[in-house]
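Tokens in:
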């Protein structure tokens, strides 16, 4: 018996996180398809319309087929693309319920399912995306700036007020966080320092 090939092989239900059973496909044009997904959780039963889009080229095709994909923009920096994917993943509604470590683990697994990436880099991308998300509510008033005249100072801004944070203070903060390991609180966040 021949196995059916779906364009999306795995996608979690936004409501309950159970896998979706993906059925059918409607070809809209060369770079866009629509598919239908039903939640496999019998207690949920949600269904969705999924769109699969070819957004950018990560690597070019051979010269034999290069003329066929002229309209698809080339991704200049794959690391920016991964950072965007991590941001999108941690901002999904059901991620709010998870601890920081669970979010980092889930995002790492998600990124590794998309591209070959080592654990540490995937965890750093996830932690960076989570830090951006956590800082969003204070980012309107607070910001960080590097003092370009020195590599041992960061300027923390709150409106017109400025605070100079030394590298020593940041190092002490990092060491205090790392000391949590000695207290038995071995978390991904402490290991990422």
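Residues out:
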């Amino acid at each position: 018996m021949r196995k059916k090939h779906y364009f999306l092989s795995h996608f979690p239900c936004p409501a309950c996180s159970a896998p979706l059973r993906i059925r059918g496909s409607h070809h809209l044009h060369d770079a866009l398809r629509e598919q239908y997904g039903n939640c496999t959780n019998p207690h949920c039963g949600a269904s969705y319309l999924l769109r699969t889009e070819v957004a950018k080229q990560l690597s070019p095709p051979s010269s034999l087929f290069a003329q066929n994909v002229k309209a698809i923009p080339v991704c200049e920096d794959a690391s920016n693309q991964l950072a965007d994917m991590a941001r999108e993943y941690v901002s999904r509604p059901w991620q709010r319920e998870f601890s920081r470590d669970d979010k980092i683990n889930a995002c790492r697994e998600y990124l590794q399912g998309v591209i070959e990436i080592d654990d540490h880099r995937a965890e750093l991308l996830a932690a960076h995306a989570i830090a951006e998300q956590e800082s969003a509510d204070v980012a309107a008033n607070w910001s960080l700036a590097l003092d370009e005249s020195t590599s041992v100072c960061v300027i923390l801004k709150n409106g017109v007020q400025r605070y100079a944070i030394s590298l020593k203070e940041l190092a002490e903060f990092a060491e205090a966080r790392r000391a949590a390991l000695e207290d038995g609180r071995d978390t991904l966040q402490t290991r990422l320092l």
